[in-house]
Amino acid sequence: MLLKRGPFKSPSYAAFGYSLQNPRLIRRQNYNNIVSCDFSSQARKAKLYLVKSEATGEARCKPKRVNGEPSLADRLRLGSLTEDGLSYKEKFIVRCYEVGVNKTATVQTVANLLQEACCNHFALAFQIYDGFPITHTMRKLNLIWVIARMHIEIYKYPTWKDVVEIESWYQSEGRSNTRYRGDWILKNCVTDEVIGRGTSKWVMINQETRRLQKVNDDVRGELAIHSPKTPRLAFPEENNASLKKMPKINERIQYSKLGLVPRQTDLDMNQHVNNVTYIGWILESMPSEIIRSHELQTITLDFRRECQRNDIVDSLTSSHEMMMDDTVLEHHQYITNNGSPNECLEFVHLLRLSSNGYEINRGSTVWRKKLHN
Amino acid sequence: MLLKRGPFKSPSYAAFGYSLQNPRLIRRQNYNNIVSCDFSSQARKAKLYLVKSEATGEARCKPKRVNGEPSLADRLRLGSLTEDGLSYKEKFIVRCYEVGVNKTATVQTVANLLQEACCNHFALAFQIYDGFPITHTMRKLNLIWVIARMHIEIYKYPTWKDVVEIESWYQSEGRSNTRYRGDWILKNCVTDEVIGRGTSKWVMINQETRRLQKVNDDVRGELAIHSPKTPRLAFPEENNASLKKMPKINERIQYSKLGLVPRQTDLDMNQHVNNVTYIGWILESMPSEIIRSHELQTITLDFRRECQRNDIVDSLTSSHEMMMDDTVLEHHQYITNNGSPNECLEFVHLLRLSSNGYEINRGSTVWRKKLHN
């Protein structure tokens, strides 16, 4: 997921997100601010009153009320919790300015809509505190979400006026007490066809100390109310592409665009570069002939470091073949097993600060041949 | 309006818009492709069946039908023609990724929503042909819209989850047989407060020859069906800011950002830079202290030339004081008469090709002091 500040964080609050000056900070844990809470009490407070929509028959969270009435946005939005209350679905009409080449939605549009569905899900299920979609206890403990990885696959890009439905859900990552994941399924509402999937990894940090926090029982209890009880993965396939490790390509740079400069419009209120800009920067170093002949099928981004107004960034890319050594053998294996190796091209990416080479993002992309150029 | 290809043009079709290699072309008129049409017949064909929405009581165009049914997007969209059929209103919920500094919508978001309302208006009232929202006769004559000027004023920026309503209408410009204008009013749906206004000027060109075309009676008849019968202006004030002439600032450059490069994500399918990018480029040369302390109140853009993938662009800005000479006296007069001169700052802008100095856009902006920094 391409959220700078997490799926559960208002994108306008720049302190949130993967804005870690030193990514090692998240490995040092600090519990000073953790206070004991009564889990069952918190869980009761967080429990939502579910109502059935007369129109759709779907379960809906009771919309947040302002002066006793649900907000106009809550009444008009085409989103609701699913029948079991464990995921959220929202319909979006692709807007005219959200399409680009081939009259299809851009990958940035898809990323934005995943973000919107995720924010609305959390805002509906929990609460917005000072712009943060977080739980009651997270607020008490000064905890926020930080995205560590995002992986999106798009099988068929929607076009202008297509209606897409995004289902969003989250759960803890295995038995981990530090990580959560958020998953998405994208469907074309007319054909009911799955046109994309996405997954993301999240950790919780203390908003002030910027240190990783274990998710304690109180928060886990709140979050569990709207989490699937057993693992439900958008990518259930064994050894799926969302899990692959990305190598560093410093020694094997094939294509590059150096000296990229953040624009005013790339920044959030904390003067940090927003996440969708990273996708654009990765595309900058892609060979133009590939962009003309192929379309992006899969993008994976590991978030390592924030980028600020005056940073200058180098975008580096190498083809899969160039990177073909023991490091990426496993990844290659995946592609040949699951993809169409004759039609798909695979690239590995690195965004780094021009000044000192510090990594901002590692990424990988898979491109399929366009049907019509 | 910030449409590269006009309010009535699919933004994914790059041949449309102000993509004039030589802006003088629009002053040379070529009628070779104009054929005679029976006006009354065309008008009848274009006339729409209006129905009343049971829910809102508003007149609605009968949605375009696919296989006998209105499209899902037409059924779900919160937009309809007004009671008299002479304008279009659509509600939008501001999305989480559309807000920036101060948690308010960006000017780019506002520009995008104006474009979306305008496209949906025209698509509902007329038809989409190969991605162009144009009338039947325009299609026959191979005519498309080209934007010449856009002017937006934002009095109060909406925030995340605010619901805004945009009313969109168009009409011929005075007695001109070459120009049309599109106007907008933005309201906050909860308070019913007018939070912004916009206007734009359009001409019609032949899609192939790229030459200006007079709007003949057939096309005028089609367009008139959904145009106000008397002038209805978003800016009815005499000598209003949308009319001001913008001087060239070559000789009085105060602030600049040189060497701006289009990104892949700035381009449409014809490899032309999309219109919202121009706003961003103008902001690039604004002094950062002004961006921190002020917010954009008014932006005016004159579109002169398209910009392509390999162009390099200089963004030049001068404050009103720097430009204060006979050329801009009239403009200054407007500001002092109608604005709050002690709180607002005014700038003049130029985007030009680095290589040869050719003008891409002239612009002007007015900035008011932020209430909270």
Q: Which value, in Å, is the CA radius of gyration of chain A? A: 20 Å
How many domains of chain A? The number is 2
Largest β-sheet summary of chain A? 12 strands, antiparallel
Class from secondary-structure proportions of chain A: alpha+beta
Share of β-strand residues of chain A: 25-35%
Within the CATH hierarchy, at the fold level, what is the topology of the largest domain in chain A?
Thiol Ester Dehydrase, Chain A
Distance between the termini of chain A: 28 Å
Based on Cα principal axes, name the global outline of chain A: globular
The largest interface is:
A-B, 53 and 53 residues
CATH top-level class of the largest domain in chain A: Alpha Beta
Number of helices of chain A: 8
Q: What would the average pLDDT of chain A be, to the nearest integer?
A: 78
Brief descriptors of the model:
373 residues, 18 strands, hydrolase (chains A, B), disordered N terminus, acyl carrier activity (chains A, B), alpha+beta, Acyl-ACP_thioesterase_NHD (chains A, B), homodimer, Thiol Ester Dehydrase, Chain A
Describe this structure in words.
The first copy, chain A, has 2 domains: 8-235, Thiol Ester Dehydrase, Chain A, CATH 3.10.129.10; 244-373, Hotdog Thioesterase (Thiol Ester Dehydrase, Chain A, Roll). Chain A is globular, with a radius of gyration of 20 Å. With 373 residues, chain A is α+β, with helices and mostly antiparallel strands. The two termini of chain A are 28 Å apart. The longest helix of chain A has 19 residues, at 107-125. Chain A has helices spanning 39-46, 72-76, 107-125, 136-141, 217-224, 275-284, 288-293, 329-338; strands at 50-52, 59-61, 65-66, 69-70, 79-81, 88-93, 127-129, 132-134, 143-154, 163-172, 179-188, 194-206, 212-213, 255-260, 294-303, 313-319, 345-353, 359-369. In chain A, α1 runs parallel beside α5 (217-224). At the A-B interface, α2, α3 and α6 of A face α2, α3 and α6 of B.
